[in-house]
Recover the amino acids of this structure.
């Protein structure tokens, strides 16, 4: 096998993530929400009461992109924007009661999709995979916080 035919870590991670999303979308299509809408609901379920800017940062989305998603989710009754108690400019985001059963269903579909992805791996392999991916993520978070010049020096020095 030539070096060019061996997939790199970045390509493998990207392809695995893309296929996980695709399979989840196949399973969840009947629920009528896009992957981006699911992503907003899932993250909002862990940080209800966050303001739009904070949620955009966590999702790594441009604020205008998030506003469009929120407008749609609000129009179909899955989220509500509430006024901030001390800052009139901010709106705080909350799930509605209608969103909770959908999130339960989405989590179940996610579990099924993950089981498909991990088929054939032992529980120990799964634990190792998660641990290694967390290490990679931590390394990249730390690297993104360093200036580029500093990153280059750290690579050169070991």
């Amino acid at each position: 096998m030539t070096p060019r035919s061996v997939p790199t870590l970045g390509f493998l991670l990207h392809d695995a993530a893309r296929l996980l999303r695709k399979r989840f979308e196949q399973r969840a299509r009947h629920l009528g929400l896009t992957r981006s809408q699911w992503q907003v609901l899932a993250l909002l379920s862990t940080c209800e009461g966050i303001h739009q800017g904070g949620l955009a940062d966590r999702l790594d989305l441009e604020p205008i992109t998030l506003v469009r998603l929120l407008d749609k989710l609000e129009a179909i009754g899955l989220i509500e924007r509430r006024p901030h108690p001390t800052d009139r400019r901010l709106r705080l985001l909350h799930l509605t009661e209608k969103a909770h059963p959908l999130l339960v269903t989405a989590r179940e579909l996610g579990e099924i999709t993950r089981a498909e992805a991990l088929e054939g791996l032992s529980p120990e392999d799964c634990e190792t995979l998660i641990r290694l991916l967390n290490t990679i993520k931590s390394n990249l978070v730390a690297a993104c916080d360093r200036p580029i010049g500093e990153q280059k020096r750290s690579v050169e020095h070991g």
User: Anything to note?
Assistant: The radius of gyration is 19 Å. Strands lie at 79-83, 91-95. Confidence is low (pLDDT under 50) at residues 154-158.
